[in-house]
Amino acid sequence: MAEAALPTEDRAIFQPLEFQGEAAAYFRIWVVNVCLSVLTLGIYSAWAKVRTHRYFYGQTRLAGSSFEYLAEPMAILKGRIIAVAVLVAYSVLSQSATAWSVLPPLLFVFALPWLINRSFAFRLANTRFRNVRFSFTGTYGPAFKAHVLWFAAGFATLGALLPLALQRQQRFFVEHARFGLTEFACELESAAFYRPALQASALFALGGLGAFILPALAPLLLPLAGLLAYAHFSAQSFNRVLGASRLGPHRFEARLETGALAGILVTNALAVALSLGLALPWARIRLARYRLSHTGLWVQGDLDGFLAAEAAQSSALGEELGEAFDLELGL
Amino acid sequence: MSRGVSGRLYLATGSRSYSAELTAEGSGFLQLHGAGGEILTVAVEDAGYTAGVGGSPGFLTFPDGGRFEAEGDALHACWLAAGGAAEAESWLARLEGRTRYALLAVLATLLGFWLVYSFVVPRLAEQVVRRVPATLVYSIDQATLEGLEQRVFSASEVAPPQQAALRERLAPMLETASPALRTQLLFRCGPEGMGANAFTLPGGTIVLTDFLVENLPDDELEAVVAHELVHAEARHGLRQALQLSTLAVLWSWVTGDLGAFFSLVPVALLELAYARDFELEADAGAAQRLQALGADPRALARALTRLKALRGGAEGPAYLSTHPATDDRLEALEAVLAR
């Protein structure tokens, strides 16, 4: 798999993303964030989000240049306030015992494609690299197909089409991203996620079998198998998506490994739990360092040829709504 | 050029990068020196400065849209040397830069969270709940009661004459209720495991389980009703719901993407703590009510002791319960009566 992804035609140079974030520095940022967020009853959390992102983006470099996060805290705060209002209205309506209670989930399904588009547009429009901004061009129709119709088909077939739905979703994300005027391309094949999905299911089934044979160990085996299955699928699907993605003449490649990722996830969870949350900054830095340093770009020549585009305005509402409803988005 | 800061210059048009060195020219000017010897002079007031967070690279933005990226601290020093103003967020950078401020922030967070949790949220919830219109509260009562009747309660097996006698005995206490309440006393058979228990809905509906009625003497039942009336008048049920959801929203804002487990366990524990505060408040209020009515305020203490015995005397750890340990409640009651 990894061998086949190597472009052999030209002298491309592999440039890994470098992550230079440090646990101690991020701990200080994080603790100030938490402190001011509590003291301002959550209002500062919008500023906290910006500072966290600016730190992580700023410590990520590609070919010597760093990334920048540009969002304005005020935009995030506005989005957050509206999102909370919508969330409250949503839960009140869906808990009322009237016919109105079917309305919110229905509205949610139809709002979802819009929500995901706005969320991606906000995040990418506020990302800059070498003075060139990213952007997202997804529109409602294709988004509805990728996030709603395909998943409906996936669940209707009891999961048989679910890997296909996930493949469509990931391809939608990559294909509608742009760096300046240059579009990303994604040649992810339709069947790409079937093998990782089957392997992950087998891992989980193995854990289930173990728990059946040794019921005393079930509370340990089941979560472990679940985590291993999750780590396997997320690592392998990420590798496949990146391996099939291109930006102009440059190819991406990711080399995440199931075992390493699972190890980091397990030790992170233990450390955070045992330290009552204080190890959280360390855990985040570790995970980011592993994922970023195992991702990179086969640079064909240099990265000088991208043209900048006019910056488009975008509001934070979509992203904040997405977070309020706990959407897990992105690659 | 000993003060020079080396970095990269990008033009407004695209991703091409040029190595360059930046120097401060003292009197409000910056100079960029290109690799080929070209020199560009920019007035500080025309340039924008973006400081890097936590040691990340910083950026200068020029009037034509070009930008210069360099190591954060060196760029910062050069910018200040040229007479540039510190960025508006420099106080944050100072807070984030020192370990002793980090330790201070940990302490301030604990203190701040305690303040928010024990003063701000309860006061806020009290104010909001007080403004909920009575008609809305009655309809909440109605809906909740319907749900309980369907899923939890069955018809009482207490003989109708005994029910009538009890209603008459408890009527004076019920009449002390605030006129805003629509009090009604219901006898219901609870499911296995519910045991001796009493419930209050915020509109004034009080439910006594058969097991409670069969095991408590009348004066102690009166004390229980007094306790439940305090819950209803203070709208403790609504406050609990509101305080919990406020806390949950705040907590998820503060902790961000911590995952479901870590975001919910502390909130669940704090929810129980709020509930225990309400119980103590209701106990104290009940004692005063009994006194005002000329009844024995110690009936509540006897009821609590009897209820503990009915449960077999065993109690789990208080922090995992909606009710404080009986001994703590008795102690608190004694303190109220001593006043």
- Tell me the count of domains of chain A: 2
Question: Major sheet of chain B: order of its strands?
Answer: 4-3-2-1-7-6-5
| Uncertain parts of chain B | 257-263
The tally of beta strands of chain A, per DSSP, is: 11
Structural class of chain B: alpha+beta
Tally of contiguous helical segments of chain B? 11
Quickly list its features:
heterodimer, A: 331 residues, alpha+beta, 13% strand, B: 339 residues, PH-domain like, 4-stranded mixed sheet, 11 helices
Q: Could you give a quick summary of the protein structure above?
A:
The complex is a heterodimer of chains A (331) and B (339). Chain A is built from 12 helices and 11 strands.
Q: Which helices and strands occur, and which strands form pairs?
A:
The complex is a heterodimer of chains A (331) and B (339).
Chain A: H1 2-5, E1 13-16, E2 18-19, H2 23-39, H3 45-58, E3 60-62, E4 65-69, H4 73-95, H5 103-125, E5 127-129, E6 132-136, H6 140-156, H7 162-175, E7 177-179, E8 182-186, H8 194-213, H9 218-243, E9 245-247, E10 250-254, H10 258-274, H11 280-293, E11 295-299, H12 317-324
Chain B: E1 5-10, E2 17-24, E3 29-34, E4 39-43, E5 48-50, E6 58-61, E7 67-70, H1 72-81, H2 90-97, H3 99-130, H4 134-151, E8 154-155, H5 160-175, E9 184-189, E10 198-200, E11 205-209, H6 210-215, H7 218-233, H8 236-255, H9 260-292, H10 299-310, H11 326-338
Parallel strand pairs in B: 9-11
Antiparallel strand pairs in B: 1-2, 1-7, 2-3, 3-4, 5-6, 6-7, 8-9, 10-11
